[in-house]
Amino acid sequence: MTLDDVDRVYGTGDAAVHALANIDVSIDQREFVAFMGPSGSGKSTCLNVLGCLDTPTAGTYRFLDRVVNTLDGEQRALLRRHWLGFVFQSYNLLPRTTALENVEMPLAYRGVSIAERRERARQALADVGLSGWEMHLPSELSGGQQQRVALSRAIVTEPAVILADEPTGNLDSARSHEILQLLSRLNRDRGITIVMVTHEPEMASYASRIVRFRDGQIEEGSA
After folding, report:
1. What SS3 state is found at 201?
2. Which residues, listed in sequence order, are joined to residue 17 by a DSSP beta bridge?
3. What pLDDT, on a 0 to 100 scale, did the predictor assign at position 101?
4. In this predicted structure, what is the pLDDT of residue 223?
5. CATH of domain 29-53+79-220
6. Per-domain residue ranges for the chain?
7. Cβ density class 151-186: b for 16+ within 10 Å, e for less
8. What is the pLDDT of residues 24-50, one digit of tens each?
9. Contact 198, 204 (CB under 8 A)
10. What are the backbone dihedrals phi and psi of residue 204, each rounded to the nearest 5 degrees, phi first?
């Protein structure tokens, strides 16, 4: 994953906001990278560009030797579906849907059979220590358990990259370390590339490299 001279500008004229300004950053396969910086520094915008949730105003984004910003919306959606997994601060679980059904959802979008997606979802929940919790609703789970369901949903498609935006922001210290230990294990044992936005130095210490943002630019750790 490589960003070359990337800008992201919102608005025009005097109202224009440069969320990213001429940034260069490369992330190798199997890396665990943390993005840090103050609010509004550009770290989440950069993560959204890497996740094909946003597109650069200028510059080039390359993923697996493809120039992503030349792809149309459908092609970017396919890239997200087949190569990327997402974990967010707010979990983004469907409230009236069981843990198992939440984890199955990305496989349903791929057209995977009911039997196969049920089996794979059960295994993904087991991988994060949630065997026996498959039929619980999100409201019946703790915050840490909900985030583990979200992590299961991210890994059930066997992605090459997990993009995590403040994955411990709503958790206490003990649950935060549990989630980071799970991410570290996925990185180490499965070779999944992890890119994580965090404002917590203690959580960033799990990463092998820290990229620091300020005012839309990278201060440190770009390569």
Report:
1. helix
2. 10
3. 96
4. 60
5. 3.40.50.300
6. 29-53+79-220
7. bbbbbbbebbbbbbbbbbbbbeeebbbbbbebbeeb
8. 999 999 999 999 999 899 999 999 999
9. yes
10. -65, -25
